[in-house]
Amino acid sequence: PGQAAMYAGLQELGVANGEDLKETLTNCTEPLKAIEQFQTENGVLLPSLQSALPFLDLHGTPRLEFHQSVFDELREKLLERVSAIALEGKVEERYKKLEDLLEKSFSLVKMPSIQPVVMCVMKHLPKVPEKKLKLVMADKDLYKACAVEVKRQIWQDNQALFGDEVSPLLKQYILEKENILFSNDISVLHNFFSPSPKTRRQGEVVQKLTQMIGKNVKLYDMVLQFLRTLFLRTRNVHYCTLRAELLMSLHDLEISEICTVDPCHKFTWCLDACIREKFVDNKRARELQGFLDGVKKGQEQVLGDLSMILCDPFAINTLALSTIRHLQDLVGQDTLPRESPDLLLLLRMLSLGQGAWDMIDSQVFKEPKMEAELITKFLPMLMSFVVDDHTFNVDQKLPSEEKGPIPYPSTIPEAFTKFLQDNRIACEIGLYYILHITKQRNKNAFLRLLPALVETFSDLAFSDIFLHLLTGNLTLLGDEFSLEEFCTSLFDGFFLTACSRKENVHRHVLRLLLHLHHKVAPAKLESLQKALEPTKQSGEAVKELYNQLTEKLELRKPSPAEVTETPSMELPLPTVPTPASR
């Protein structure tokens, strides 16, 4: 079959091939003469060449080598010529020449030495004849060998085939995101949200998809349809990130054919700039508001796409961080949330993003209604927490009187816990406020609000993105891990409440301990090690992390000689009581 492929299609063109030579030699009386005649008829027909060939024989150069080098040279020239034809003369004429060339050469498409030429001709044709596309599609090897320009023409009428090509890339993309969230490197400086949008768009999957789509609007629409379907099926928000990254990758390449027809283009471009700065400034806020207010009657469907762009975790992160910053500014200005149009716009976009799944699922395209209590009760409550911190800090600096210092408020309003359970936007902002105080190393505020996280709206406090950020920020409170009270609140009071029912929480706790085990008091560490032991149902990732932790702890164990020392050495140093713990 290999030999047959080498000569595939020559007979149709009336060119003699190996089979013909075999037949000639089988049926002749004088083989040498027959070979000479075959060479004359099928060799390079240049009179001047006939006298030069014997020189090559004298140098011991086989004829095959000579013919091969001539062939390679001619093929290179032909490939250059095809590429040149594709750019010269009138459009109709150049494509007419290429179509004629394709018609003549297509029968040789399976011949390895000629295949590149046929593929090159097809690559430069904006519309390869349907019949030829079908033949390419039906042959696995030909399909594999053809250029992406030809594949696009096949894909645009074969959604299933295109889906087969795109599907592994989407799986890879989700996996990459999850690997970052569960990475063993825990740091407050380098986290999931650290890479800039431009850097993220250079990722392998986004680049491959961008190349597969080219300037083809139909293929772009198909990819968006895949992303919507998968988002609906899995509720996985990383598909929303890919939706925005893909559009902005086409934007970077200035593919106006697609950017001008995607109604989200300018909104996404503006939001992308905010994500880069991790803040929505006043000028961009006005611009984004203009897009939202500009959705005309009859075009409400665009809200479905805009909500998906806003549901991207990178967008939510930017909106939530900006909201916390605004709330702090309002405390300083003695202003209520309802009096700040900028804050209300942030909430409106958060609400639209958080409602993406419901909107696409129900196909009811209207902005979700904002609950008044979120603005009149919940946000002022968060502001009162900020005030509590200011008051406490000022009080600590005042000279202490006989009655002793005022303790840090330890209770939380019941309404706060209820908001976190019942209201998605309140929960998101509440979680970001907790990340904010942890980053500020505000242990008092952290321990005060932590109990509210055990039950949250749709278990958001146990979602991977929040736990990834929380574990990173907790490294700043590393020294607190030696205190029994802190560890009991954090592990027993929060993490361990969900470990057995949520594998991802189990993984995040083990990640945290791998990083901070040396800070935890030995007795506490031992009980945690017991509590975190994997069960039969545990996945490979949990078992692997647990083994890593066990190995690290084994290395830390003192030798038997040290253990016989006085046990008091084993205890952590007595801590000086802080005013709050009296």
From TrEMBL:
Where do the record's region annotations for Disordered lie?
A: 556-582
Instruction: Name a GO CC annotation attached to this entry.
Output: NELF complex
What Pfam families does the entry give? COBRA1
Q: Which InterPro entries match?
A: COBRA1
Q: One biological process GO term for this chain?
A: negative regulation of transcription elongation by RNA polymerase II
Please identify the protein, giving its name as recorded: NELFB factor
